[in-house]
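Incident review: delayed structure delivery

Summary: a single-chain prediction request sat in the queue longer than the usual turnaround. Root cause was a stuck worker, restarted by the on-call engineer. No data loss occurred. The affected request and its eventual output are reproduced below so the record is complete for anyone auditing the incident later.

Affected input:
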Amino acid sequence: MPDPHTLWYPSKLDWWLGVILAVVPLSSLAVLVISLSGDDPVETLIAAGTAVFVAALYGLLVFPVRYGITHSEMIIRFGVVRQRIRLDTIHEVAPTHSPLASPALSLDRLSVRTGAGILSQTLISPADKEDFLSTLAAYSGLRRAGDRLVRIEVDRDIEASP
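Output delivered after worker restart:
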């Protein structure tokens, strides 16, 4: 059962990516329709298999793409996949236009870093970036630093001194 306290943000969709995402299934359906009018059952079977594969791929990995924020975690959903990132592990959230593969339907992205290196980042593209960043800052303890969010570490030695 979904958490009623999760705030969800849909992915922004770039127009050119929307065109590509529409052309692929429409093309596979067009090939299937054309093959049905022919008399080659192997061609029709291949076209039907391709159309089913594209539909399964979109349903399993592409749609919907959205991002949820709870009081303890960020949830990244793409298709049936859900990735969860604990808010206290996020070090920085910064704008990027990186074309690396990610659960994002736009190149207007945010890099969510949980450590050092490329494997410690996730790229997302919430449609309403400002509201997303404000909510994430409020729930996570991250602070605004220009167009980024950063975790400001408190020096425990200073806190412990008299």
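Verification: The beta strands are 7-10, 65-69, 73-78, 81-86, 92-96, 109-113, 121-124, 143-145, 148-150.
Action items: add queue-age alerting; document worker restart procedure.
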